[in-house]
# Entry
Amino acid sequence: MKADSFQGATWEDRLAKRSDSVVVLLVILILGALIGTVIGEVIATIAPGGTLEKIFSKGIHPGLSPPATLDLKILSISFGFTVKINLSSLLGIGLAFLVYRKL
# Structure
């Protein structure tokens, strides 16, 4: 039996434990994507115009472009984001998930 089992725990304890693990998973996956993207950019810098650059650094960029703007006359707020998804970031996410599973 695991030391962190839910036996005898209330549903609030179970929900808190689950939300903590979801937050940890999201942080690890985001870090994996960031590290993978940086590695892809380094590979693109080392081999500019080559096949490695095309494989690891080219990808899709979904998001709000141009940003949406809310103009309240005295205050203007812009909302926008872009996500860069490429093979190296997907590999980073995959490796990060494997690390999370080992924790």
